[in-house]
Amino acid sequence: MTKKRPYIKTGGIFGDIFLKEFTNMRIQKFTVSNYRSILGAKNITMGEYTVLVGKNNEGKSNLIRALNLAMGNMKDIALQNLSPTKDGWNTARIRFSSNAYSYDLDFPKNHDSKKKGVTKIQLHFELSSTDISDFHECLNLRTNNSLTLIFSYDDNNILNIQVAKRGGKNWQSKILNIIKFVSRNINFTYVPAVRTADTFQNIINSELRLAINKTIHDEEYKDLTDKLFKLEQNAVNDIADSITPKLAEWLPKVSDVRIAINNISPYRRPYFSYRNSNLYITSSGTETLLENKGDGVQSLFALALLAKNNEESQDSILAIDEPEAHLHPEAIHRLQKTITDLSSKSQVIVATHNPIFVNKNDESSNVIVNNGSVRKAKTIKEIRDILGVEVEDNLINAKSVLMVEGVSDQKFIYTFIKLFGSQALKNKFNSGQIPIIPAHGVKRIKAKVQIFQNIMVNYFIVVDHDQPASQVIKSLLDKQELAPNQFSYIPKKEFQTEVELEDLYSNEFISLTCHDFLNIDIKAKLDNCNRKIKWSKKMSNILPEVGKEFDQHTEDAIKTKLAESLCVSPNPEKCLSDNGKEFVHTLINQISTFFI
């Protein structure tokens, strides 16, 4: 049961309703009509992570901007306590709005120029039981778990906001308080594709407003102005201190963030409009005004700030237009992971043409935007087609892949999937939904990962536990291209320095295979060989002692023979060592957990 949270009623410029804590309100879906290139996009469902995907100039950004227009206007009206006139609100006069509606710019030009139309944005909110109770207590209105607001913008740039399907003048007469209730309960953050210093200034100013608005309700504020300034500065310092470590994750050379607030009157301080604060970052010992840094640094600063903000709020909506803009590949991967993490506790919606940000776990949460129209994606193939992504024949039906180092590893793992995997797992591998792809060498794994990301498939990697493989895995982890649950090493015992897949075979099976293939008996030598070293090094020591050369060709040939013999064995598990028998069951469980 959700615990009911207290609210505080206040007056003055902040209106009659101020909720002390955010609740669980969220946007369930939204509709946009007659906004720029969008003529009619109906009922776009918003889950935890929603992706608007499509080619450039197809309307993705306009959907994000429409959402920001409505949410931003609503927040500004609530903050200024602006009652509507008989016609509504003039958006040009909303004090803080940086995205005022302009009929000449925002209404679609391909419509009949003689007819005056209306831009409409409908926001469907979902309320928790706590929200419903607070709504009734604050407004003396009863509602169920849904609330729909319709934003209409006419040719005079007048905004009218109505509550859909709610009866009587009583509801509409309380529209301002309804707007306040919604805007106080949802923290909406918009990140445009073009991210300049002005963008970050607006983000940090919004953060400062929220932080310092809390202090003005303190009784000490009313009695001691001097103490107010001290409390404000503490709040500002807390923000700067909390930003610094998060920014350092993205820009390791950054050691400090400082926020300098201009001197303004106590009455105007809570607004923190543009230029009331300046942002400085210290990198490599030098302090620089943020707006003097390059686009890449400025983008990383904004995204680090958003990551920090959303980590602290479980009731926010984050909308990002082209998250990949101005970022290098490593930062893009780090951002993708950050966005995924944020979506576990906040609603996230992005507009992108980069396959990396596509939600591969839930195809239907991807919305295809094409020629100004929208539709839910049904398959990853649809998204690939709209983005022009070409796929190799063996990956056409793939949603995920299991990547291994070589062909012998491929045969080994598939043998035990057929033997021990669940029917659901076997069906996915047999149908080609999860192919096993050999990288043909550990050095090629990174390149394969890039391909898988571009064609929007999940991947799980199985590699030897030796130095070359460890270096590749570490590099992928460092670049956020691999998660800890996306790979498995071949297991090694405490006494072993390195291992490879062939170490999972029993000495008897290796000896029998080599006897049939090379006409040699190496059983005794295998049993007495140094157990610390991996299979290939053992073989490089043993084969010359029995009159055989061990080169790359011989190594590959023996690996192939071992895998082929395993495949035709009536009891493959008997071909394994005790460590191998244990591992194949562990690996099947890991694969099932990841893919099913």
What share of residues is helical? Answer: 40-55%
- The computed structural class is alpha/beta
> How would a crystallographer describe the biggest sheet?
6 strands, antiparallel
User: How many helical elements?
Assistant: 20
**What portion of the residues fall into strands of 2 or more residues?**
15-25%
Q: What is the number of E strands?
A: 21
What's the number of domains? 3
* Average predicted confidence as pLDDT: 84
Radius of gyration: 30 Å
Strands of the largest sheet, in order across it? 4-3-7-8-9-6
User: Could you list the spans in which at least 5 consecutive residues all have pLDDT below 50?
Assistant: 1-22, 270-275
Alpha-carbon distance between the two ends: 31 Å
Shape: elongated
How would you portray this structure in words?
The chain is α/β, with parallel strands linked by helices and 596 residues long. It folds into 3 domains: 1-186, Rossmann fold; 189-357, Rossmann fold (3-Layer(aba) Sandwich); 391-596, no CATH class. The longest helix is centred in the middle third of the chain and has 26 residues, at 225-250. Residues 1-22 and 270-275 have low confidence and may be disordered. This is ATP-binding protein. Residues 25-358 form the Endonuclease GajA/Old nuclease/RecF-like AAA domain. One of its GO terms (molecular function) is ATP binding. Keywords: ATP-binding, Nucleotide-binding.
